[in-house]
């Protein structure tokens, strides 16, 4: 069953289906199915294969291969070809085949035809070319058809069904047909549809509302025009209207070209070089060098140049270095300091350079400090807030509600970090949503803090998607906040489904650490989380919080609030303890 097949509820809906579980229960519901269960094997069950492990289970995998592994099952197929694979190499492998290449040219190869250039052959025409490559159609343009339309080739398939098309409605068209409408053709069903649309449902909504739509505003819209609308310009048309333009700033925009905007440069091009080229510019940087370039080394070549080695390689780094390594260039570095580099210090080295020290850029900030910002302050650490980068530590945030923050989105790239959005940590979120981008907090959603959310369904919270950035956060969206998530934390996986985790709410987690729930973190599905940054993964939270990495587990929060971060995990703020909630 494809993620889209899932069928009725989007990840945001959190009410009936999980994004990954694509089946019958929402991520929040998860009361019966794990996010990845999709097939009888909960993400937790997969416990032996982490998303990173990429060899067995994908994040949405719905069954057998991880998103990373891509080697055997596609994200959409959830059964045979991986999304990255779409050919022969996984996105991580990036050394042989392009992620969408679906054919014979690696994403890095695109070096001759800019994704944007493609302008002649529609994605559908591609028939055998990689997603970016498609010989003539960029992912955004798809020639003359929007990425969704793509005629007949899916982003990965490039040969049979367009990603959103799977139905004859271009992504841009969505204006008339909601991504959710797609509902009759599942991504899997399409048998040729891309991950996003797979028929009639968007990746997020899998049922009724597209991830961007999530109500009324598209993810890119962030203000005036929906991503597809882009002023009535399909994403393909977007050539003139960047995703950022659509609203004002794209998440990856980082200053010049947003990932969505692709304005004149395809996502791969990002300015002058394709994303795969990456030579000197991170994916967010876009504007000078290709992501895969790695300084003259094609992504394929990357094999020998670790992302860190590249000193300029992007998150896919092509080779041997993890996204965390980033050696010298961060994915969002776009411009001054690499995400981990922070002054020539690898994320590991970070120890001496605090994120704040690193500089001035948050992951979204793109320009001064990397998300890893490597420092003395962990994301939730408690000394310097990720966004504060110099004024208020995330821990300090305690006195400034996220709502107060109030005007910076995670993608803002320049003022507030994703977590604090100003002066308050994400944990505080009692007032401002993570994507709030200005007015309503994620938990706020009607004057109900995320913790309170228990009584206010995500839907109640509003009708806005996480990207909507203006009304409701991604967590709010359904009936229970992500924090509530039914009864178990998201990372629990292991023996219990992500949300199911039995009967212990994420807040309750105080007694059942995410790790306890199982033994697999979201990233590694087995030992450490993606942010593990310390000793325990975010999932383990039995010892270290995802952000804090190093001292207290998310579950510990039973005693310290996230504000106290120095000691507690992000969950701390919730229901672990009244004090947590009140901090």
The level of helicity is under 10%
SS elements, strand count: 0
Structural class: little secondary structure
Number of helices: 9
pLDDT < 50 runs, ≥5 residues = 1-583
Q: What is the overall shape?
A: globular
- Overall mean pLDDT stands at 27
- The whole-angstrom Rg is 21 Å
Strand content: under 5%
Could you characterize what this model shows?
The protein starts with 122 loop residues before the first helix and ends with a helix. It has a domain of 97 residues. Helix content is 7%, strand content 0%. By secondary structure, it is low in regular secondary structure.
Keywords:
583 residues, disordered N terminus, little secondary structure, single chain, globular, disordered C terminus
Topology:
Elements lengths: L122 H4 L60 H4 L52 H5 L59 H4 L44 H4 L43 H4 L52 H4 L52 H4 L60 H5 L1
